[in-house]
Amino acid sequence: MNIHEYQAKQIFAKYGVPTPKGLMAESVEQAVENAKILGGPVWVVKAQIHAGGRGLGGGVKLARSIEEVEKLSREILGMTLITHQTGPEGKLVQKLYIEDGADIKDELYLGVVLDRAREMPVIMASTEGGMAIEDVAHDTPEKIIKIAVDPAIGFQGFHGRELVFGLGITDPDEQKKLISFASKLYKLYIENDAEMIEINPLVKTGSGEFLALDGKMGFDDSALGRHPDIAAMRDISEEDADEREAAQYGLSYISLDGEIGCMVNGAGLAMGTMDTINYMGGTPANFLDVGGSANAQTVAKGFEIILKNPKVKAIFVNIFGGIVRCDRIANGILEATKLVDVHVPVIVRLDGTNAPEAAEILRNANIANVIAATDLADGAAKAVAAAKQAK
Amino acid sequence: MSILVNKDTKVIVQGFTGKEGSFHAEQCLAYGTKIVGGVTPNKGGTEHLGQPVFNTVKEAVKTTGATVSMIFVPPAFVADAVMEAADAGIELAVIITEGAPVRDMQAAKAYATKHSMKTIGPNCPGIITADECKIGIMPGMIFKKGNIGLISKSGTLTYEGANQVVKQGFGISTAVGIGGDPIIGLSYKQLLAMFEADPETHAIVMIGEIGGDLEIQAAAYIKEHITKPVVAFIAGQTAPKGKRMGHAGAIVSGGAGTAAEKMAALEAAGVKVVVSPADIGKAVAEVLKK
Fold first, then answer.
1. Which residue in A343, A314, A318 sits closest to A333, CA to CA?
2. What percent of chain A shows pLDDT beyond 90?
3. How far is A385 from chain B (nearest CA, A)?
């Protein structure tokens, strides 16, 4: 789960990680009110969406008067912001963050992520703040310092020294401040079961203070149960409505832009099915993992969600029945076609335990739209053909 | 021969009397797995599925001589269960539970490693040595005995792969579902080494997916150390960037961990890489003909 910048900064503040003063606003009036409370003389009006690259997209602007705060807030609130992380459809700005302007001398990058290879969190830092870190990693990887910190020992002095010397910070007072900053950030990463924290930029001010000018945080969904305060920060308006609806039924759904709807059990096989459709010249319309049960209700819900997409010309149901027998799944699919009006061809491949019985059930049902397939390749081929015919 | 588990392996179940634990332990017993007991705190001294129940893993190990534990406890208790198993001298823990917090698994795996306990999973179908020992949730009947070793991050793709191998007239020595979480136990590299050393295994199928770099590490290892033919499939060639594809670890982040780079690395290591999982069986037949 991801949260907004203003929420990340609330967590930073709780741990003593310095940030500029700021207040969230959901209307232009509130933005102006916030600006007055902050006092100025310079403010930053920032769009709050769950995506990076907001500045380049026109969602972060500097204001030098209350009138300017009002004008910019009016512009940004309600706009559809397109950045390299939002996709071409962009994201609607529903919240603003009004922040004190900072006197920026240097821009750094500081983040904490899980290093899967080392199986521990790694602190990433760079002197190239304010730039997309992916680009820095690609073009000048030597400018990124990585410091793995074993949670068993926590953030130690040597980690701090590696960080400041790595960044070329020589002033002892500044060294002390940045080490304290990083150590607090690591602590809050661990204590809140964060998945990633990114501060880009982390700025050094003219007076030698370090401030988190931006803040991005994501959390381990599996650990949200023990962090009710973080779980409460969830902003469902930032999530895809169909994905959210699917999740409520235990389905894992992601929409894509192709024509063949997919319904599969298991995440790996679901991806493999998309890949096979693509390989055979078709285009997958979605990823959908119905999980282990695949009963009439979940399958019906799956059909419903897939068919919301008007581009879908055929549906490929690809189930490998294991402990759940295929004959039961076949009956579930037939029942689901009665619950939902399925107006496109449905290609059904059921393999595994009791597959022949399942094929018999589908054949006997003799439903015009339901086409049985013998294996993955056969099913994908039939789905691609059906989608082409529908054009 | 086979790897890790066989007909003589003594297994206990942590979370034995719960709904999932009971259901799957019963299936494993029916398959012929030597489940010699289980652990459920406060139910020690009772009997379940005809086997003794213990309060602690230590007690279970002392009484039964079990070396492997199958873990079905709820997500929040997985780390505790894994560490208890390691502390009690269990040699291999197979963690089926899905949804264990990543931070917990970091600590649990580090502790397991310290005690030389191997782990498989979490969030995986388990391990099966055909006709001998099934420790997990896979449908046993698909896995006909044979000479192909199988390693997979995905459950249903394990079944798909095994099924195709069998349809081509071959069979499985041992199949291991390693799970798709960000932190997992045994990975391709260690399992490839075991299959290489196993005389019963003639070829290896490895099924990977987007996210992380375990498949890249495997490619480097294969190039240096594996002489047996390897067939690979990487799921998620058509997955969009930045989206988590079901498994917690299946995400292309910052342009890294794509299917394309993994496929290229494996191909460069001499692995027969298939573009569709529908071709796994055929590819196995092909590499064994050579």
1. A318
2. 69
3. 17
The interface residues of chain A toward chain B in range 106-135, judged by CB-CB distance below 8 A, are 114, 116-117, 119-120, 133-134
Domains of chain B: 10-120 (3.40.50.720), 138-289 (3.40.50.261)
CATH superfamily of A241-389: Succinyl-CoA synthetase domains (3.40.50.261)
pLDDT in tens, A39-70: 989 999 999 999 888 888 889 999 999 999 99
Q: Please name the residues in contact with B174: beta carbons below 8 A apart, sequence gap of 6 or more.
A: B2, B3, B4, B5, B127, B128, B129, B130, B149, B150, B195, B198, B201
Q: What are phi and psi of A350, to 5 degrees?
A: -120, 125
CATH tag, A21-100: 3.30.1490.20
**CATH no., domain A104-231:** 3.30.470.20
Q: What H or E segment, with its residue span, contains residue A104? A: strand A104-115
Q: How high is the pLDDT of residue A368?
A: 78
Model ipTM value: 0.92
Per-residue confidence (pLDDT) for residue A342, from 0 to 100: 87
Report B:38-67 residues touching A (Cβ under 8 A). Answer: none
Catalytic residues of A: 109, 198
The whole-angstrom distance between A122's CA and the closest CA on chain B is 13
> Which residues in chain B are contacts of A351 at CB distance < 8 A?
160, 163
Query: Can you give the pLDDT at residue A391?
Result: 67
CB contact under 8 A, B246 and A278: no
pTM: 0.92
Res B62 pLDDT > 90: yes
